[in-house]
Amino acid sequence: MTDREQENLATRVHALERALQIASDGVRIEAADGTIVFDSLRFEARNILSHEHVTSNGLEKALPSGQVIIVAQYEMDGGGRLTVVRDVTETRKVEDDLTRLSHMDPLTSSSNWSHAELRGTEAVEMARRYKRPFSILRFDILDLLAQERRENRDAVIKFVSEIARHSLRVVDTLARIQDGRFIAVLPETNLDQAMPAAHRICDRLGNSGLQHAGQMIDVNICVSAVEYDDQKQDFAALVADAEWYLEIARKNGPGAVEARPPNKQESN
After folding, report:
1. What is the rounded distance in angstroms from the CA atom of residue 13 to the CA atom of residue 10?
2. Which of 148, 155, 236, 241 is least surrounded, with the fewest CB atoms within 10 Å of its CB?
């Protein structure tokens, strides 16, 4: 490279570096012969470049520090290569928060139906692929509409959600479908393991009265439990079976728990 070419390149590098540093968290510029003419990359980015294939599409990496960066490389006109690093940690945090909120029921802070459906579909795939058990619980609050005031109904719904949440495991997904209707997805759980959870929710509600607005409100539910046991069954079919058994439980009265026996399909 001649002196004039080096001078022209240095001028381009300086202008480019100033522009890129405004919108990036690290820059490397290489000449056509591979000479590094500017480098403000940190160790983590340099380490990624030495071990990973990076393109203009960008490679996203989560660092041990919790920081998330995107490393991208571009071929420059006339030869040479440009590497740019962007810190997207805050962006990913905002995206994660938005995702979490989109999966949350605003009244109870439990999951909503779309999140339960997602978790249930994932559980079906795990069951099919690895022959792992999972079950679902469906339960409804009985006589919810007997509470004429909306704030009373909301209090009952939140009360049931709280009791159910503390009766399930951290890995389980509790979701409110609508009004006083709930579903729980229990991964790695067969029917024999799911039944105690169903009875635990009923027993805790039966032993706990809801004191609200100066009055004691009796809260009752009925529950159905269904285990996935058919390789052709999808999550929607499993929920349909749970609804069928929930109707039996409803007829049997408050606190009733009904389960579909394993390896047996029922339909209306």
Report:
1. 5
2. 148
| pLDDT for the residue numbered 202 | 94
More confident residue, 134 or 232: 134
The backbone torsions φ and ψ at residue 136, rounded to the nearest 5 degrees and listed phi first, read -130, 150
Per-chain mean pLDDT for the chain: 87
- Among residues 28, 36, 22, 92, the alpha carbon closest in space to that of 54 is found at 28
Pairing of strands 215-217, 210-212: antiparallel
Sorted by sequence, the CB contacts under 8 Å of residue 256 that are 6+ apart come out as 222, 223, 248, 249, 250
pTM across the whole model: 0.70
Mean pLDDT of 224-249: 91
pLDDT tens digits for range 87-137: 889 988 888 888 777 889 999 999 999 999 999 999 999 998 898 999 999
Token digits for 179? 């009004």
Please tell me whether residue 79 adopts helix, strand or coil conformation.
coil
- For residue 14, the model assigns a pLDDT of 63
Write down the residue that tokens 């005031």 correspond to.
Answer: 149
The two three-digit tokens of residue 22, written as one number:
């405004």
C-beta neighbour count of 196 within 10 angstroms? 12
CA 97 to chain centre: 10
Residues near 26 by beta carbon (within 8 Å), at least 6 away in sequence: 40, 41, 42, 45, 83, 84, 85
